[in-house]
Design goal:
The complex is a heterotrimer.
Chain A lengths: L1 H17 L44 E10 L2 E5 L8 E22 L2 E16 L8 H9 L1 E13 L4 E13 L12 E13 L2 E10 L6 E11 L5 E7 L2 E9 L2 E16 L13 E19 L2 E19 L21 E2 L3 E10 L2
Antiparallel strand pairs in A: 1-3, 1-16, 2-3, 2-15, 3-4, 4-5, 5-6, 6-7, 7-8, 8-9, 9-10, 10-11, 11-12, 12-13, 13-14, 14-16
Chain B lengths: L1 H26 L4 E4 L5 E8 L2 E9 L3 E2 L4 E2 L19 E8 L4 E9 L4 E11 L2 E7 L6 E9 L8
Antiparallel strand pairs in B: 1-2, 1-10, 2-3, 3-6, 4-5, 6-7, 7-8, 8-9, 9-10
Chain C lengths: L1 H17 L5 E13 L5 E9 L3 H5 L8 E10 L11 E9 L6 E6 L8 E6 L6 H5 L3 E9 L7 E13 L1
Classes of the chains: A mainly beta, B alpha+beta, C alpha+beta.
Chain lengths: 361, 157, 166
């Protein structure tokens, strides 16, 4: 009996001594709050350093992944004579193809954003009368089309709450190649570096320099960025001159309209396939550049999936041809007097683009 | 012998419950008032049931300049809920503590655009949080740093 | 061959039954909400921990519940309450549980009522099935006080008209 009593006493003692009290931290029932007390709170240690945000209010959402289709209507290609081939005029029913791009943020924090991306664009030429093509330039466009495949990186580095640096570099392979691609010596490199200010949530601007192929051939030109949103958040601009510029109207948070232009261009190596072009006519490059004046409609489909549709007028800026032996680039710029091996013209059709996009949060 | 057995079982139960209690204490470190790096709002984190929620308790610009009234959730995808006041709005929802200074399974809502993001909260030190909001996978997201504010003293009347 | 036809017929019937028109049942729930004072200007959460009993609400059809929406929500200040709706600017109803995401259910902002009753605007998108399948969940009513108040408690009665689809 005594032993049993002591067992029970010891057991009870152990229970009382060691039973933990669970902290009731469900806070909803306990504290009422005077919201004015939050006005002047101090940090426990230091506040986080504030950085200029990469975005301002109201901008069109940035596309992380884009799958789309581009179509240009009927137009003509007038080639000049070269290498024993006569001048010609060929009618093109359409130029169309897929456009796919990805821009993946590999570092994404307040103090640094770095994106790495890639793209694949096709231009498939549908000539009206393929059998009557005599010009080897038209022949390769008809048979092989033009492709761009490239990689790029963009780095946004805010210096403080109001200023930032923006850097972009890309390497593109452009030509009439097939799945075998083409030699690395034909790669085209572009780079841009800007310094800018973000004085408020409604405005950001930057200036800088770029090495670019948007005009079809190598150029070094200044760049201006100016993004603005009105205080009502209805109107705004998105300008990266001379690459593109748009005025934007925000219908609501899920629909927006833009009007403006984009300068698209690159240098495309031709004669990758077939034997029509041999020395001294090989290693030709089309200095292709076009200005697209357009309306753009963007609409949220669901969540972070947006539709983008453009329609407008494609104005040919350049379709001239140079010879770059082994891809060795030379600089002509706006004032150089080196002759083109071909000076071609394209008439100007209407065009449309449509794409489905995963946009950035 | 029986006494030894009971004592062992009791001590085992105590050890287990103590570790659970310690886990609760670690999880509750998220409770408090925090300021995102943009400084436009202050967020109070509370516990309801077993999960953690953060509500806006202060806005730098509490009034909508167009309506001249306190800001509301005008970008909510659910049109019927757009008149919900932003002060008191729970923008952090449903966070649960894992064992690595992280709170997961929650979402963060951005009233500026009406988007809800998956979110992971990491406590890098007692007064600093890495709040990463993302869509789908963590790669498609952004990290913001939130700093702890001193708890206010209550008004007594 | 007969077996195959039989199986196909069974599958077809099962699909037709599953895709058949859904049925609805409505039911009212009345719950008390409370919070302890004193109260300061700004949102205060009144709450109630609710233990749903689907069987009591839906009878034998409880297991077939597919969708649950709130049709009407009203909040009443009981007779003798020291408060009137003039004391608040907004009311927001939220469901919280350990196993379902927090869901905003209804809102009224601004509150304009000269009676004891207000009717909240319900969310069209909130689907509350998972809450009602749980053992318990918490109902929060955030009332935005205009001024500080030193009452010991505030009580309110919540009435929800639920539509059960099955």
């Amino acid at each position: 009996m005594t032993r049993r009593y002591y067992q029970q006493l010891l057991f009870a003692t152990l229970i009382l001594a060691f039973t933990p009290t669970f902290a009731q931290t469900d806070t909803t029932e306990t504290e009422e709050e005077d919201y004015s007390m939050y006005d002047n709170l101090e940090f426990v240690d230091e506040g986080a350093k504030r950085y200029a945000s990469v975005k301002i209010k109201g901008l069109a959402p940035q596309k992380l992944i884009s799958v789309g289709y581009s179509f240009q209507g009927a137009h003509e290609l007038k080639t000049s004579a070269f290498g024993g081939f006569p001048a010609s005029t060929d009618k093109i029913n359409s130029v169309s193809g897929m456009r796919m791009e990805a821009n993946i943020p590999v570092i994404s924090k307040n103090s640094l954003i770095m994106q790495v991306g890639g793209r694949y664009w096709e231009s498939n030429y549908d000539f009206e009368d393929k059998s009557s093509i005599t010009n080897p330039l038209s022949a390769t466009l008809s048979d092989n089309g033009l492709k761009t495949t490239g990689l790029n990186t963009t780095i946004y580095k805010p210096l403080d709450e109001f200023s930032f640096l923006l850097f972009r570099a890309s390497a593109d392979m452009n030509g009439d190649f097939d799945s075998d691609l083409q030699g690395m010596e034909y790669m085209k490199y572009s780079v841009a570096a800007l310094w800018g200010k973000r004085p408020s949530d409604y405005k950001q601007w930057a200036v800088g320099l770029s090495r670019t192929y948007r005009a079809g051939e190598l150029n070094y030109i200044p760049v201006i960025l100016y993004n603005y949103t009105s205080p009502t958040s209805k109107w705004g601009t998105e300008i990266l001159f001379p690459a593109r510029g748009h005025v934007r109207y925000t219908v609501n948070s899920r629909n927006l309209l833009m009007f403006g232009f984009e300068l698209e261009g690159n240098s495309f190596r031709i004669g990758n396939q077939g034997t029509e072009l041999n020395e001294p006519l090989n290693d030709l490059e089309i200095r292709r550049s076009e200005l697209r004046f357009r309306f753009v409609y963007e609409r949220q489909l669901t969540g972070f999936i947006w539709l983008s549709a453009q329609a407008g007028y494609r104005y040919n800026y350049s379709y001239n041809v140079d010879r770059l032996e082994d891809g060795d680039e030379f600089f002509r710029g706006f004032f150089g007097d080196q002759d083109y091996i071909m000076e071609n013209e394209l008439t100007n059709p209407l065009y449309f683009n449509v794409s489905i996009n995963l946009v950035s949060p | 012998m029986k006494l030894l057995k009971y004592s062992f079982l009791l001590i085992l139960a105590v050890v287990i419950s103590s570790s659970v209690n310690a886990q609760d204490e670690k999880a509750d470190r998220l409770i408090g008032i925090w300021e995102p790096s943009h400084g436009k709002a202050k967020v109070k984190v509370e516990k309801i049931g077993e999960k953690y929620y953060g509500k806006i308790v202060w806005l730098r610009e509490p009034v909508n300049p167009e309506t001249e009234k306190p800001k509301v959730d005008k970008n909510n995808p659910d049109e019927k809920m757009r008149s919900t006041p932003l002060r008191g709005y729970r923008i952090l929802k449903d966070f649960q503590y894992t064992s690595k200074n992280e709170w997961t399974e929650g979402t963060i809502y951005d009233p500026e655009n009406g988007n809800t993001y998956n979110c992971i909260i990491k406590m890098t030190d007692e007064n600093t949080l890495d709040i990463r909001g993302y869509i789908g996978i963590s790669t498609f997201g952004r990290t913001d740093i939130w700093k702890r504010l001193k708890m206010p003293s209550k008004k007594k009347k | 061959m007969k077996k195959i036809i039989g199986n196909l017929a069974f599958v077809l019937i099962a699909v037709l039954v599953a895709c058949g028109p859904s049925q609805e049942k409505t039911n009212d729930i009345k719950l008390p909400l409370t919070a302890e004072g004193p109260f300061f200007a700004g949102p205060t959460s009144l709450m109630h921990e609710f233990k749903p009993d689907l069987k009591a609400l839906m009878g034998d059809d409880a297991a077939k519940l597919k969708e649950l929406k709130l049709k009407d929500i009203s909040v009443n200040l009981p007779e003798g309450s020291p408060y009137s709706w003039y004391d608040f600017t907004s009311a927001s109803l939220v469901f919280v549980s350990d196993n379902s995401p927090m869901t905003s259910v209804a809102i009224l902002n601004p509150i304009k009522s000269n009676g004891t009753n207000i009717v909240l605007t319900t969310s069209e998108e909130a689907d509350l099935v998972e809450f009602f399948k749980e053992e318990k969940f918490t109902i929060l009513l955030d009332l935005d006080f205009i001024e500080d108040s030193y009452e010991d408690a505030i009580n309110a009665d919540l009435t929800m008209n639920l539509v059960f689809k099955y």
